[in-house]
Structures are given as C-alpha cells and as structure tokens.
Amino acid sequence: MHLDFFPSRTLTLYLAKMFIVRILAVLVMLVLVLLMLDLLSTSGEILAVEGNGQSELMTYAGLRIPQLMQRFLPYSVLLATIIALITLNQNSEVIAMKAAGLSAHQVLAPLLLTAGLVALVSFGFNERIVTRSTATLKAWEATEFGKVPEESDVKANVYLTDGTNILTARTVTGRGADIRLGDVTWYRRAPNGQIVEQVRASNARFVAPGWQLENPQSFDVGTASSSTASERVVGEGLTPAQIELEAIDPDATPFWILTASIDAYEAVGKRTAELRAKWWHKISGPLSAFLMPLLGAVAAFGLARSGQLFVRAIIGMALGFAYFVVDNAALAMGSFGGYPPFLAAWAPFFLFLLVGETVLVRTEE
Predict the structure, then answer these.
(1) Smallest Cα–Cα separation from 273: which of 345, 346, 340?
(2) Where does it sit, as one GO cellular component term (predicted)?
C-alpha cells in the first residue's frame, strides 16, 4: 500500500469531490462578500456619471468578478483544505485511513491532485478571461466610468516622450497603424524643459508620421491664450510600435503576448525586470493552489479530542497566509530590481514547499 501514491479509486474520488465542493463554496462566499464591499465603495463614482445606472453597475460587477476569483482562489483552496481536513479528523476518517495503512502523503494525494487541476484551470482562466476584464476595467476607470469601452484589447494611461515634448493618453485601442488614442494631451516644451504649450484632444490617430489630433484645444503658456482647430499633427517622432511598447500592462496582457513584448523590450535595450517577474508569476501564482493542501495538512492529523485541533488549524492558516505575504513581498522586490525576476516569482513557492513537506514529514511520517 505504501508503494502506491494514491489510495483506492473510491477513496480518491470521495476526497477529491469533497475538496472541490468546498473550494467552490468558499470561493463563491469570498467573491460575493468582497464584491458587495467593492460595489459599496465604487457605486457612487459610477452613478455620478450622467446616464449611468443599474446596467453599468452590473457591467462593473461582471468585470470585477474575474479579478476577485483570480486573487482569492488560492485563499479558497487554503480554507477549503482546512475545513475538509478538520471534518475528516473530527469524524475519525483520518484515523480509519491511517489504520488501513495509508501514509500522510497518501491521505493528501487526492487533495494535491485536485489542487493541481485547479491551478491548471486557473492559469487558463487568468490568461483568457482575467486579462481581458482587467484591460477593459482599467480603460473604463481611466475615463472615470464614462462610456464603457467596446474593445477588450484596451490599455490605459500611456506616457511617452518625443524629444523634450510629452504625449499622454488615457486609453489606447487597436494595433499597428490602426491604433487610436483617447483623451490625449500634448505638452510642447522648450529645450530647458519648461512647458510652453498644452494641447488637449478627445482622440488621435496615426497619420505616418505623427498623430493627428481631432478638434484640439491648445493653451499657450506664454500668452495665456486658448485656441481651437479642426486638426493638428503632433509627435512625428513617435511610432505605433513605441506606443505598443509603452502601453504594456502585464496584468492585462496574456502570457504569450507578454513573452513577445518582453523580447521587444530587450531588443531595444529597455529594462525588463518588472515584466519578467510578472511573466514568471503568471505561472507560479496559479500554481500556489497546489501548495495549499500541503500547508494546511497539519489540520488533518492529531487527536480531535486532545484540544489541539484548533491550534493545528491556526498553524495551517498561518503557514498559508505567510506564503501570500512572502510572495507579495518577493514580487515587489523583483519589480524594484532587488531580486532577480526568476527568484522573485519562484523562491516563495519552493521555500514553502520545503516548509510544508518538512512539517508533514517531521510530525506525521
């Protein structure tokens, strides 16, 4: 029996079903509670825009739910692990399994398999759904909850320099020569860096060379005078390729597109530490769900009547939440260049994998 990693097929399906049901239940509970709190704090801003109503609130909720699911799925796996293992312990099912010759690793094997499948599904969900909703929501927030962007491939808050001049745009849609900039501001500066003119426009399109502003409104700093025109071309040194590079948001960019973007950044000699750390974390983040059964495993063992079950559950939760703290800190250090990108994304995972395995072996095996 000890040579087989998994218990019997019946027991494996029983434990896996119990685990997945609790994961979904905890995830739904967390998402609903956090979504309601989020709506309470944001609904005022959405409804303050003329014309917005219940449909816009539902749109916001639809865009936020995938983000909440992405962020709190590992927490759900951790809490589901502790709930499932405490239930098994209190019902003496763990004692029965160990009396039948199963090791601690064999008891956890169905949970680890289920968590691995959840991590795989989570990766696909994040890259296909969450990135699109994040891009659309950020673009909508950039317009202060005005018109909802129709495209999912939308980027927000782009800042570029053309010599001493500056071009900013709240939204960027499209690719290549079809790129459209929204809520554009052009700052013309003197060689000493002082702003001499500010030009605002609702939209801009690429006209090779330069970007044609639609109905621009300019303000001359020197004369303190304003003027309007039907169109104006600015930023002749800026190309669509530069716009696309500057508009990269790793949270709103799928894994395969971010890979090409990092290569393009490196080709022009730009710093890629932050992007590379986020690229690695797109893999290690979902995989953290696989760690949770191991970190919460201490709740499965020990006598339920000894009074230690509650303490073991607290230890499991502490190990799980400690992982998330260390993971966020390491990712922040990687973004600042304090850690190499690979180390920033993967060091917490392997560290807590060893910690969880050590605790399990030393206490139960």
Answers:
(1) 340
(2) ATP-binding cassette (ABC) transporter complex
Q: 0.70 cut: is pTM over it?
A: yes
Three-class DSSP category at 34: helix
In a domain, residue 315? The reply is yes
Residues 26, 69 contacting (CB under 8 angstroms): no
CA-CA distances (angstroms) from residue 108 to 11, 72, 84, 103, 339? 11, 22, 11, 9, 33
Torsion (CA) 236, 240, 243, 247 in degrees, nearest 10: 170
User: Using 50, 70 and 90 to split pLDDT, how confident is the model at 3?
Assistant: very low
* Residues 98 and 195 placed together within one structural domain of the fold: no
Asked whether 72 and 66 are in contact (CB, 8 A), the reply is no
C-alpha pair distances (Å), 305 with each of 25, 86, 96, 257: 27, 12, 16, 54
- In a shared domain, residues 302 and 176: no
Quickly tell me which residue has 């850690």 as its tokens: 339
Q: Give the confidence band of 324 by pLDDT, cuts at 50, 70, 90.
A: very high
Q: Judge contact between 119 and 289, C-beta under 8 A.
A: yes
Chain center to CA of 84: 27
Residue 265 is assigned to a structural domain of this protein:
no
Q: Do residues 162 and 225 share a domain?
A: yes
Least confident of 169-178, 231-240, 269-278: 169-178
Task: Answer yes or no: do 33 and 137 share one domain.
Answer: yes
The tens digit of pLDDT for each residue in 32-60 reads: 999 999 999 999 999 988 888 888 899 99
* 42 domain-assigned: yes
Q: What's the CA gap between 207 and 203, in Å, rounded?
A: 13
Hey, what are 133's tokens?
A: 């909703």
* Rounded mean pLDDT, 12-23: 93
Q: Could you report the per-residue pLDDT of 120-153, keeping only the tens digit for each?
A: 999 999 999 999 888 888 878 877 887 765 655 6
Assign 218 to helix, strand or coil: strand
Write out the residue range of the structural domain in which residue 206 sits: 154-248
